[in-house]
Design a protein that fits this description.
By secondary structure, the protein is an all-alpha fold. The chain has helices spanning 21-45, 48-55, 60-88, 90-110, 114-120, 129-140, 146-175, 177-198, 210-229, 234-246, 262-266, 272-298, 307-335, 338-356, 364-388, 395-423, 426-447, and strands at 9-11, 207-209. The chain contains 17 helices and 2 strands. A two-stranded antiparallel ribbon has the order 1-2. Helix 4 (90-110) runs antiparallel to helix 5, helix 6 (129-140) runs antiparallel to helix 7 (146-175) and helix 13 crosses helix 15 (364-388).
Length: 458
């Protein structure tokens, strides 16, 4: 019998032997450490990139091409690593992500010209540790606790987001830009060592959802009870009992077996149960990416911010995200239904984006909390709902496609927003972003029944 955690999920070590509760807790802690180190290494290098690119001869246009190239790499790699997670487990995928990050940072630290900068972005195809970690916590928790666990994961990512840039800036000033990248390489390699020393394989087959077992057991018990009381149809009842024991309990959406091919993973977006969810994710991510671009472009002319002011605003957003993910989303998860949480989030996000067009200066800080709250709820619940739309054996691939939707928005949304910013007013750009969110809400309401319950395979 599998050991079970407080979340209602038992984990085996991949060899048929159950893990103890202590080992389960240790596995979860290593997953969280991975995300702290992953975010820490990444955000250490983010402030350095513009200066290093300029030092090596890249102008702003070339730097934009570099960012677009990285976006395409992430777009391709999301579904690819999701497929790897489903086949080989989250430990393998997470270690590949950290190794890819370490290689990317090493090449960045060794770069001596602009082509080397582009070459350093090739390994980022496999840099999806957050995606692998989301797969882990999705399987570790029961169906109703997924948003809370993913929000907690985002909180740990936020630790690296808050601390990484500060240390990166300090090391850059004292030891040089490329030394920062080499230090990030070391952080990534430490993560790989921790994974192979303390983390089990974490395959989908290693997880047993106790709530699903209890549901199936109750269904069987109810069937057997009704058969035992039906004395007039004893012979038929015995035949039914035999059928009940030999046939697994399945839901109405279970008539699909997990895909095992890479092409099948990329084509999962055509499935009816995923098509509209992924389109919804793409629309909201487009609005959010457009917001980030608009915020950067309007920081000085609209809100009177210099570099320090923009950094302060970003730190405020990061700190507020930590609070929301650690405290507010768990409360929503426990007290509010999934549809209520999602549609409230969409309404708040549309309202906040509209309001952004009417504020200036310090009043911006009255709008940011609504934006941060709605963004955090979207990220926690969208991943939870998308991963629940497929069998657990395909959850990694579904999460990968969800991340690919975000990467796709980062490829085209900044360019479109930049053109709009030069053609229409700031208020009109904000209204367009809010309209995209409303369109996403209408699509979700008309095409999708929101649920965190996972279908079972045949």
């Amino acid at each position: 019998m599998h050991a079970t955690s407080s979340s209602g999920t038992g984990i085996s070590n991949g060899g048929g032997l159950p893990l103890t509760l202590r080992a389960e807790s240790r596995a979860l802690m290593i997953v969280y450490l991975n995300i702290i180190f992953y975010a820490f290494a990444y955000w250490m290098c983010v402030p350095v990139m513009p200066f290093l690119s300029k030092k090596l001869g890249a102008d702003p246009v070339m730097f934009g091409y570099l960012q677009t190239f990285a976006g395409f790499a992430q777009l391709i790699g999301g579904p690819l690593l999701g497929w790897v997670v489903d086949l080989h487990g989250a430990r393998f995928a997470m270690s590949v992500s950290q190794l890819a990050g370490g290689l990317s940072y090493f090449l960045l630290g060794a770069a001596f010209n602009v082509p080397m900068l582009f070459f350093s972005k090739i390994p980022t195809i496999f840099m999806h540790a957050l995606q692998s970690a989301q797969m882990c916590v999705t399987l570790m928790g029961d169906t109703q606790s997924r948003p809370k666990l993913i929000a907690r994961l985002s909180s740990f990512y936020g630790v690296g987001f808050v601390c990484g840039p500060a240390l990166g800036g300090f090391l850059s000033r004292t030891l040089g830009h490329q030394t920062v990248a080499l230090f990030a390489t070391l952080v990534s390699l430490i993560s790989v060592a921790l994974n192979y020393r303390y983390l089990p394989a974490l395959r989908a087959s290693d997880f047993v959802d106790r709530s699903e077992q209890d549901s199936n057991a109750k269904a069987k018990a109810s069937s057997l009870s009704s058969l035992s009381t039906n004395e007039n149809q004893q012979a038929a009842g015995k035949a039914g009992a035999t059928h009940s024991e030999d046939t697994p309990v399945t839901s109405a959406t279970s008539a699909r077996k997990p895909t095992k091919t890479l092409l099948g993973t990329f084509l999962m977006f055509l499935r009816p149960e995923l098509r509209y969810l992924l389109l919804f994710s793409l629309l909201v991510n487009t609005a959010l990416t457009s917001f980030y671009t608009t915020f950067s472009l309007a920081a000085e002319p609209r809100f009177g911010m210099d570099e320090q002011g923009l950094g302060t605003a970003m730190s405020f957003i990061g700190g507020l995200s930590l609070v929301v993910n650690a405290l507010i989303i768990p409360l929503l998860n426990n007290k509010v239904s999934v549809p209520a949480a999602v549609y409230s989030m969409l309404g708040l996000l549309a309202l906040a984006l509209c309001s952004l067009g009417f504020v200036t200066g310090f009043t911006l800080y009255f709008v940011l909390p609504g934006l941060v709250l709605s963004m955090a709820v979207f990220r926690a619940y969208s991943v939870s709902i998308i991963s629940a739309a497929v069998p657990k054996e395909e959850a990694g691939s579904a999460i990968g496609l969800s991340h690919a939707a975000g990467s796709l928005s980062s490829v085209f949304a900044p360019a479109v927003t930049g053109h709009l910013f030069g053609m229409v007013s700031f208020e009109s750009v904000c209204a367009a972003q809010a309209a995209v969110v409303v369109l996403a809400a209408v699509l979700l309401f008309s095409k999708v029944t929101l649920s965190l319950s996972r279908p079972k395979t045949e």
